[in-house]
Amino acid sequence: MERKAVFLDIDGTLTQPGCNEVPESAVWAIAQARKQGHYVYLCTGRSIGMLSPLLKYDFDGIISSSGGYIKSRGRVIYDCPMTEEQRQAAMDVLEKNGIFRTVECREHSYVDEGLKAFLRSQAARRDNDEMLQRRERLERALGILPMKQYRGEQVYKIVVMSRSMEPLVRAHEALEADFDLCIQEKDESGLFHGEVVNRLFDKGRAIARVCSDLHLPLECSVAIGDSLNDLEMMQTAGIGICMDNGSERLKRIADDICPSVSEHGIRSAFYKHRLIPA
To answer: Which of 11, 81, 98, 267 allows an S-S link to 17, with CB 3.0 to 4.6 Å?
Structure first.
């Protein structure tokens, strides 16, 4: 049997977005794959602090903060927070352009209070507070705190939301020497989402770092994701699989598409690619 390293995104892949409960079918499939001798890693944009509810499940390691912090078989093999100068420059540029920020540190994350005010105004205008309730559930599930509680912890990544694309373009131009700004689709609240990530790492390079640590060729890696922030890991892994509930752009570059989270996609992909016996 050829040993493989499997890398799983979380939100929209292993779990429903913002959820910490893994379907029993996925828990079973991961355990069976590891019994077969394969390695299984989380590969997520979430910080370590956001992962605590998932650590009750057994994984061989964690790629967090989109590749900024990597733990493999109990050892930290990569740790790359922003420098203080980078953090201050990014925060200033985003604030100047009116972009809502969520700073992700190793243990905690902090969000601009203005985001909640914007969502309240949208909910009132549409006579529908579901968006606000969903955001509040997300913040509770992931332990996201108000920005006023931030006390200078090292930052690994900044999640951004903007009312329009233009401020994000301006921010990208101002920060592109040090950071990549991955912009995703507009959501139902009218906000464009994105992530400010250090150019020194991404999920693809993280997979390469783990495979090197495991002494496995990249051809023996499998990546499963659903959104555009999974693009680099799809392009790097030997096999890239997109969830059926995922981004249409990602589906076009993926090697395969598996069923959605709600339809036991992880188990289905593990069966199809012979990570577990039929």
So the answer is: 11
Which of helix, strand or coil describes residue 17? Answer: coil
pLDDT digits (tens, 9 = 90+) for 202-231: 999 999 999 999 999 999 999 999 998 899
Number of alpha carbons in the 13 Å side-chain half-sphere of residue 269: 29
Asked whether 182 and 195 are in contact (CB, 8 A), the reply is yes
What is the rounded distance in angstroms from the CA atom of residue 120 to the CA atom of residue 186?
18
Q: How far, in Å, CA of 224 to CA of 248, rounded?
A: 14
Beta bridge partners of 61: 41, 72
Helix (H, G, I), strand (E, B) or coil at 231: helix
- The two tokens of residue 83 are 């420098």
Instruction: Tell me which residue has tokens 């390469």.
Output: 208
Between CA 43 and CA 67 the distance in angstroms is 8
Q: Which of 62, 30, 31 is nearest to 49 (CA)?
A: 62
> In this structure, are residues 149 and 180 in contact, taking their beta carbons and an 8 Å threshold?
no
CA distance 96 to 102: 15
CA dist 211 and 198 (Å) reads: 21
Q: How far apart are CA 103 and CA 153, in angstroms?
A: 10
Angle subtended at Cα 82 by Cα 78 and Cα 87, rounded to the nearest 5 degrees: 165
Closest by CA position to 1, among listed 275, 270, 205: 275
Distance between CA atoms of 192 and 185, rounded to whole angstroms? Answer: 6
What pTM was computed for the model?
Answer: 0.90
CA distance 244 to 193: 21
